[in-house]
Amino acid sequence: MTAGGVEAFETYAVGDDVWCLAWIGMPFVVVGKDDDHGVIHIDGTGACSLPEGARLDIVADNLFMLTHEPWDSIWYWPDIAGERYKEVTERFVDAHRDGEVVVAYSAGLMSVVPSPARAMSFRLGVDSYWPSGVIYAQPVAAIAADGTELLVAHDPSVEDARWLPCGPRQSVELRMVAFRWALTYGKLVLNWQDFA
Description:
Blueprint: E1 17-20, E2 28-34, E3 39-44, E4 55-58, E5 66-67, H1 85-95, E6 101-106, E7 119-125, H2 129-132, E8 136-143, E9 150-151, E10 164-165, E11 170-171, E12 173-177, E13 180-185, E14 188-189
Antiparallel strand pairs: 1-2, 1-5, 2-3, 3-4, 6-7, 6-14, 7-8, 8-9, 8-10, 8-11, 12-13, 13-14
């Protein structure tokens, strides 16, 4: 293992059974290894709807996606930044207070862009994390002071009491977005700062 928890290129050999973040749940076998270019060739051993099967080439920059560990141990894998989910989650909890209103942004194909057009605000429930491992979020919105606009992207100048619930309080989900651990409510990413 390297410092970020990524298994070294040298630990892989042809014939190894492996798992890959690029195709979660599919068992793979190493079918080739290009030492000169740092590429590992893998082929899926499970059923696949693609004519040529589940074949991938893992280059050195994407080695974090490959592991000998069973795929159900994905929670312990480092993401593209070398962080495990607990590091990301606990940093988020430590940076927020219970009841705080935050903005979340929808995930694009390969990133999270903090755009007001793709924003929604949530009131957090983070005190429950330490005893239960759960973070809660509830969508909130406010009416502008002049009454002409519905505010969905949090504006700190609007007093806290005016941010009213507009959807169900739910536990935040942990998922991988663009190979980075993300805390999400639906497809909205609460820890969008980690994608900058």
